[in-house]
């Protein structure tokens, strides 16, 4: 009985971990993981991925990659598994990605010869059975397996994370475009807890529970694993950009909510820390715009709408735009850091010209005098240093209409939410 309880607490700790993701908990995220393996294999284990694709035949490589975690957890010999799990518990799921690529590389090495037993196994019983059998009879020692895994060059944690996020957003976009509903298990509906709902009802001057649930459905899936926390409100903390930065600048992501004196309610999901306003480029110039393509605008009253980044159809060169279906996520989590390119006669910094190639990738900007979200041909949200007056226009980054009819607005309440543990 004691061992069962200990096992349960160990699993619960892995699920609840805030520092690293150990276990995926939704059907969507499970699909994201194997598609991430497939994408990084095409770049970092190219010959192995191509060989696997040729051997897969009619079933296709997708079906094979879908079992990638079982190569490790179910098929590897116990001595290999122990060594892999030691690394996994220390470093997180990126270890599994590296080991999966190492298995593909080693399998390719032993199955590339048409006279080998593994090539014969793949052609006779299918490559999925061949990889499973190869893992169970792993010809490489635990040390060699891990050495192969960690000797893959240029496979950084940041790169894996970018591929993971891009894949997640692409899958969500396709689901909205085609009208498919991504089914989640009961345990992973990831709605705010009842206590969080009570807290928001007590503290918020802008959000009703219905509006909270609407916003929740627009958030990236991984963010819904966390609970919302009110970081800053003008009702309690005063109207000062200095206080705003002190309370919110180290949180990522944040939800910024504005209620105007005309009762309009709108805001933005801000994917990046506001502290990045202080970052400088390699020349020592302050980065004017920062953030990623996960940033989006929304309106809750009088109209309810979401305005995601327009996206880019051919890489991130700004030569084309693509607006994904309403309510969907972005296809490219492109991180933007662009310095001011204009300069006024008195030496003050100028605005980025909307005609520049990056005018549709201007997500967030801030300094001691203002906060801006969205740019190019206008600013989607602009607020002054006293958090009293603001302006909203159409902008190239989100292709949004003005978020309130008059364009200019007076702020009744500003609220900023973070996500506990994110």
Automatic annotation (TrEMBL):
It is a peripheral membrane protein. GO terms for cellular component: cytoplasmic vesicle membrane; endomembrane system; synapse. Keywords: Cytoplasmic vesicle, Membrane, Synapse. It is found in: Cytoplasmic vesicle membrane; Endomembrane system; Synapse. InterPro entries: Rab-GAP-TBC_dom, Rab-GAP_TBC_sf, TLDc_dom. Its main location: membrane. The keyword Membrane applies. Residues 205-420 form the TLDc domain. It comes from the Eukaryota. Pfam families: RabGAP-TBC (PF00566), TLD (PF07534). This is TLDc domain-containing protein.
């Amino acid at each position: 009985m004691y061992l069962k309880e200990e096992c349960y607490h160990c699993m619960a700790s892995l699920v609840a971990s805030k520092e690293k993701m150990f276990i995926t908990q939704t059907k969507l995220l499970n699909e994201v993981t194997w598609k991430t393996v497939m994408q990084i294999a095409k770049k970092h284990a190219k010959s192995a991925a191509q060989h696997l694709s040729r051997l897969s035949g009619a079933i296709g490589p997708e079906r094979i990659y879908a079992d990638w975690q079982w190569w490790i957890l179910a098929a590897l010999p116990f001595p290999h598994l122990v060594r892999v799990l030691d690394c996994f518990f220390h470093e997180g799921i990126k270890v599994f990605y590296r080991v999966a690529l190492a298995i593909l590389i080693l399998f390719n090495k032993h199955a590339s010869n048409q006279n080998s037993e593994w090539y014969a196994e793949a052609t006779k019983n299918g490559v999925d059975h061949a990889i499973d059998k190869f893992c169970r009879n792993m010809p490489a020692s635990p040390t060699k397996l891990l050495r192969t895994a960690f000797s893959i060059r240029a496979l950084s944690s940041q790169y894996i994370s970018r591929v993971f996020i891009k894949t997640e957003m692409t899958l969500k976009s396709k689901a909205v475009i085609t009208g498919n509903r991504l089914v989640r298990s009961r345990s992973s509906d990831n709605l705010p807890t009842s206590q969080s709902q009570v807290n928001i009802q007590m503290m918020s001057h802008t959000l009703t529970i219905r509006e909270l649930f609407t916003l929740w459905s627009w958030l990236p899936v991984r963010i819904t694993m966390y609970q919302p926390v009110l970081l800053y409100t003008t009702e309690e903390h005063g109207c000062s950009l200095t206080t705003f930065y002190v309370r919110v600048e180290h949180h990522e992501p944040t939800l910024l909510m504005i209620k105007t004196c005309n009762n309009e309610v709108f805001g933005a999901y801000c994917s990046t820390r506001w502290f990045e306003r202080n970052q400088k480029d390699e020349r020592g110039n302050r980065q004017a715009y920062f953030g990623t393509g996960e940033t989006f605008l929304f309106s809750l009253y009088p109209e309810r709408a979401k305005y995601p980044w327009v996206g880019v159809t051919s890489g991130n060169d700004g030569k084309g735009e693509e607006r994904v279906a309403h309510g969907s996520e972005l296809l490219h989590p492109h991180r933007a850091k662009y310095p001011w390119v204009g300069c006024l006669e008195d030496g003050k910094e100028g605005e980025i010209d909307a005609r520049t190639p990056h005018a549709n990738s201007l997500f967030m900007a801030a300094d001691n005098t203002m906060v801006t979200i969205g740019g190019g041909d206008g600013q989607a949200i602009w607020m002054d240093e006293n958090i009293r007056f603001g302006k909203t226009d159409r902008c190239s980054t989100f292709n949004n209409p003005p978020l309130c009819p008059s364009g200019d607005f007076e702020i009744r309440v500003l609220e900023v939410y973070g996500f506990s543990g994110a």
